[in-house]
Amino acid sequence: MLDLKKLPGATPDEKIILVLRRHWLVLLSLAATFIIVLILPVAAIFVVKYAKPDFFADTIRTVFFVMGATIFFLFAWLFMLQSFIDYYLDTWILTNRRILNIEQNGIFARTVSELSLHRVQDVTSEIRGFLHNILDYGFVHIQTAGQQQRFEFEEIAHPNEVAKAIMELVEEFRKTHIAPQAEASLKAKPTNKK
Amino acid sequence: MIPLSYFLIAWLVLIGIYAVMSFLSLLQLYRFGIAGPGTYTSSVVFLLVSGAVIVGSLIYFLTVDWSLALNLGGIIPAAPQIPL
Q1: How many domains does chain A have?
Q2: Residues spanned by the domain of A77
């Protein structure tokens, strides 16, 4: 299990600032789909009872119906769990030193990428569409130095605030880590005064 | 005539496949999920609902007479005899 107190490769002074996932609405649409699927066997009972009232009087028919309905429900429930895992394991972790992008693709495929804050060049937030506007969720794109591929936070809540927080962390990181190092290296350089 | 118990075996095989797939999914959730209540709650809810459905259907199956047989002729109507 991923323990947030012991992130892989963490330095002693590393602090977790944000743990992000996709917006809950993504999960809600999944739940709505499941409810519709769940209604199908129940609706089938009513339709059969209405069309043929004596259908369930026969034991064999009832057994087949129960078998079919349980298998249908259980595999739909499993599909629901797998979709939830896909949602739940997609995580973005923002610390005061780096950004971790953990992406779950299906059940067995997984990508973990890491980006040090000093490599962040540009952060863009994007809200598109009616629902995104109303519920304030969208995308955050992070452009990195010397890399064509962008880091992307997908369908997260409050993308503008997250983008702002990332930029503040990058500035802070540069002030505390990059600037003192640059100063020290300038001081260490021998001056060629004649 | 196909004995009804054959269908019970087929159902149990499917339940076995379901159990294996559920185990693998929960294993992935526990290996890579963030340690916290979300991971535990979701797996407990999943197991409780699955258990309730399986136990409920097994309780019903205990009341069934498995010596019955399915007569395919009863399902598929015989072709009409056309007098020559």
Answers
A1: 2
A2: 26-87
